Amino acid sequence: MSQTGIIPEFVRRQSFIELDGRKRAQSLFDEGTWKELVGPFDRMESPWLPLQGVAPQFDDGCIVIKGKIGGMAAVAIALEGAFQGGSIGEVSGAKMTAALDLATKDSKTGKRTAAILLLETGGVRLQEANLGLAAVAEVISSVLALRPHAPVITLIAGTVGCFGGMSLAAGVSSYVVMTREARLGLNGPEVIEQESGIDEFDSSDRTLIWAIHGGEQRVGMGLADALVEDDAGKIKATIRGYVQADLPLEYRSQQVEFYRDRVTALDTSEQINPMSLRQRWSNKTTGGLR
Amino acid sequence: MSEHIGLRGRAWFQALTGKNQPASGDPGTVLVTEARIGDEPALFLCVVPDPAGRFPCVRDGQVGLEEAFTLAHHLRRVITEDREKPKGQKRPVIAIVDVKSQAYGRREETAGIFFAAAASADAYASARMAGHPVISLVAGQAFSGGFLTHGYQANRILSFDDSGIVIHAMHKEAAARITRRSVAELEELGHEIAPMSYDVRDYAKLGLLYKLLHVDDPLHPTTADTEAVRHDLIDAIQDARRGATDLSNWLRSDAAKQTRRAGIAVRAALEAQWQNT
Amino acid sequence: MEQIEFDYPAAKRSITKRAHVGVVGSGDMEVLMEPTQSEGAHVSITTSVDGFQSTWKAVFDRFFSKFDGAVRVQINDAGATPGSVMLRLEQAVEVINQ
After folding, report:
1. Cβ contact (<8 Å) for C46 and A80?
2. Torsion-angle region of residue B191: left (phi > 0), alpha (psi -120 to 50) or beta?
3. A47 and chain C: CB distance < 8 Å anywhere?
């Protein structure tokens, strides 16, 4: 009798969220086909953090893994949410941009190379402020350069979520995959409460937070493409599907008139009810054909 | 300085184009027009405060949902109109930047401002990649998400050099609170650590600026000032046309080779290791 | 921010594998453990928490009383407890011994 026959499903399920950034990235690849590039042994750290008494990390919180997914070339770039909130600094931003640009170069010469961005990030690393911000602009540019040639898939699993400037990288991706636990937005609840007051956003209201930023809402309102369970096997399969898919003819972030009209139609006299917005906006606008 | 947000942007939009009103159908927060620069027409874009705006968190010069989609709309219109033109004839795009930040509002988060901002960045980058020279003139403030949405996808970035210019990821007061320093300590730190500085002359050390411009009173441009800045914009347009349509020029300046050497080194290392897999 | 160095010249056993363990989260640390060319083991610690030199020494004295590999150990630390440090070192040794 096989062991798997008597172990319940919920025990066998491997949580993706419990994996660190490195293991998450590794888990997406076909077995034995992947290799980490510029990993911790290369010691390419932030030059700015030690100047401010902050301990650096050997990989600067960004893990680049190249290999095959479903037999096709792919690169995964993961931000480690536990290090400085997954924030973008000079080095981590450069790793991300360089990997995207190399995938573009290969894709243009006939070796289509998809990119998967595993985004657990609060955005720009404050201790590197303007270099982090410029790096985010460069990442956005590099995603847009790769996108016509190969799929760029953003995967947000939680618990940090994807906030700040990197949410724009998610917004221009070919596909966005989220768990229920994951969140996606430009400003997190604490920032809104800080800047605009507790009536604008009570950052202790968890129900409100997930109603607005959570994976189920983002997928439901058509700003993300797939809602997945926190299961490494299922996430791997979902990503593989997008890596192997044909390239879309049009991308969500190109559909300006459609979304501009939707914004014009919003009643701004009160706060917007997230559930009714989900119902109004719920026809799917994935990266694929409409 | 904060009371001048948006005023410098509007002043320079008017000085360079002669116009000061939104286009028909656009919200009061976005000024867009076509105007001549040198011997060709260019698209000028500026986001400004509008106390009568529909979205309460956007009235002081933040970049919100309507602003992002309006910018994207005009950019895509120009890309489409110029699609068949040879590269040298694609209209330049000039973003005049004086924005307090992105909008910090619940309505904005609910309706997906991250995505609106992405659509605008996409449109700016698409114009650049299609061969339009995209030039940003930082006339006042350029903060985080606001700058990412409006101006930070440019081929060339120009800025005035006075203390009314602030380019940064987070306002001083918030940054001071988060890093548990006084504002004075934060300013001091910026002199040691260039990427943290609020002074545009330190920002210039990062190698991202094409040129620092000097004007005696940026809030009140004279005819001579306007002519000089126009000349600098034309120079930037020509330089952009000579170069690539990506952002690679950001890393080629002497300043970047110094302050961004860690980023340059990691890019080289990644490229070397990529070839071997 | 402190930089702390230790040497353990008696740790001479030749090692062939390398290990990386941990994440530099608040209250945590990461360690690189690699074979070294020189005789004996060398430890370098970069820590954002000052004033614990003797605590670090106690942990490493204890570690190298049980482990004799000639390794270069490099740590980035953001306030891990001695117990966590020892755990990370043991995890690294497990990888090296595989």
Report:
1. no
2. alpha
3. no
Q: Would you call A187 and B147 a contact, using CB atoms and an 8 Å cutoff? A: no
CB of A58 less than 8 A from some CB of C: yes
- The CATH number of residue A272's host domain is 3.90.226.10
> How far apart (Å, rounded) are the C-alpha atoms in residues A237 and A240?
5
Look at residues B96, B169, B144, B135 and name the one whose alpha carbon lies nearest to residue B239.
B135
Length of chain A equals: 290
Total Cβ atoms within 10 A of residue A195: 19
CB contact under 8 A, C25 and A83: yes
pLDDT of residue B1: 41
Task: Give the count of beta carbons closer than 10 Å to the beta carbon of residue A231.
Answer: 19
Per CB-CB distance under 8 Å, the chain B contacts of A47 are 262
User: Domain tally for chain A?
Assistant: 1
Say how far apart CA B225 and CA B233 lie, in whole Å.
12
Coil vs helix vs strand at A97: helix
Mutate to test the interface with C, among A41, A43, A51, A159 (most CBs of C within 10 A): A41
- Please check whether residue A80 lies inside any domain of the structure: yes
> How many domains would you assign to chain C?
1
What are the backbone dihedrals phi and psi of residue C30, each rounded to the nearest 5 degrees, phi first? -125, 155
CA-to-CA distance for B146 and B175, rounded, in angstroms?
Answer: 17
User: What is d(CA A70, CA A73) in angstroms, rounded to the nearest whole number?
Assistant: 8
Tell me which residues of chain A, numbers 138 to 177, contact chain C at a CB-CB cutoff of 8 Å.
Answer: none
Q: Distance (Å) from the C-alpha of residue A19 to the closest C-alpha of chain B? A: 24
Give the pLDDT score at B218.
95
Those chains having 3 or more beta-carbon pairs within 8 angstroms of chain A are B, C
pTM (2 decimals)? 0.96
How many angstroms away from the CA of A154 is the closest CA of chain C?
A: 22
pLDDT digits (tens, 9 = 90+) for A171-209: 999 999 999 999 999 999 988 888 888 988 999 999 999
Domain that holds residue C32: 2-96
Query: Mean pLDDT over residues B263-276, rounded?
Result: 95
Can you list the domains of chain B with their CATH numbers? 2-246 (3.90.226.10), 249-277 (no CATH)
Q: Please, which chains are in contact with C (at least 3 CB pairs closer than 8 A)?
A: A
Number of residues that this document lists for chain C: 98
Residue recorded with tokens 């071997």 = B276
CA distances to A132, B157, B201 from B196, rounded to whole Å, are 10, 19, 12
Domain membership of residue A68 as a residue range: 15-281
Structural element, H or E, at residue C42: strand C41-47
Question: Residue A290: pLDDT above 90?
Answer: no
**Element containing residue A109 per DSSP (H, E):** none
Handedness of CA A206, A208, A211, A215 (dihedral sign): negative
